[in-house]
Amino acid sequence: MTGFPRSGLLGSAAVGLGLLAAAWTTSATAETYKWITFKPQGAGDAQAISTQWFVDEFKTRTDGKHQIEVFWGGSVAKTREVPDSLAAGVGDFGDIVTPYFPDRFPLNNAVGFFIPQPKSTMEIAELMETWHATYPQFGQELTSQNLKAIGYRPLESYGLLCTSPVRKAEDLKGKRIRTYGFAYPALVEALGATPVSIATSEAYEALERNILDCTPIGPALAHGWKYDEVAKYYIEIPLGASFGHLIAMNLDTYNGMDEETRTIVDQLGSEYAKAYSDELDATIAQVRAGWTEKGVEVIEFPTEELTSIVGDERIQAVRKEWINRADAAGVPSAEIVKELSF
């Protein structure tokens, strides 16, 4: 009978079983993580583009062993559902719009109490990273809810988009200006204008119908929401960048990663703000370049006329509210306040 010797058959079988076991082990340890976001995939803005950057880099740096699948456009969790969905493990990564949860994340909403302030998008991202590294209370605010911040996505520096020219503080008297959050209502009142609470999605029509005279916004968002179709004056009033989104993870997922993968996530989180900020800057430059043809006039606002009102008691009362929260949490607030002051 012609064939393999018995020892050869056993050897071949052993090799085959070994290859099968190796393949099974590789398959068992490979992971596909879920990223849940409210952003539409085709938005084409800095937020969506930088999210895809993170996903692509994660796959590359893990040599394709792990990957992230993005569930775009609120398909798994709407904007206000993301923190609970992440905490419950419905997703592994996600975008938390921090200002929507002022009582849930009071420390991480610090910047929202200090408008106007002098910092840019990248500077605010760096401050947030520093605060998380320096004051454990910032992170504990998240870990207590089974969440972990791995990156920071501040919004762009804001000015005012208006339906008529504003060249000095006096021109703002009586204007109806869209407000939200903590600092903007107090700031608008201190400027002698009238704060009006209107949702982002409704502001286009409000500007078009003269229900609003102005809205605080940056060039990229003004173009993205098409507000610059109905309001043709962009006022360079230095409101500063405001903090927008945490790039967060389910804490159990993060802790369950092997050390190598966790290190990659930490590196990407640290690099994320630069990738996002670079994309945002490119978008802003493109929007500004197109404004001339679109008939949008950019008007410089005297900085001193804004900074001179920061001492107004209404503005200071808002800032004091956050200071009290920080003090109660054991965070020394003086250095943070100094960073966010002109």
UniProtKB/TrEMBL annotation:
GO biological process annotation, one example: transmembrane transport
Tagged with keyword Signal: yes
Signal sequence, renumbered to the chain: 1-30
Keywords: Signal
Pfam families listed in its UniProt record: DctP
Domain of life of the source: Bacteria
Entry keyword annotation includes Repeat: no
Protein name as annotated: C4-dicarboxylate TRAP transporter substrate-binding protein
Species, as recorded: Roseibium limicola
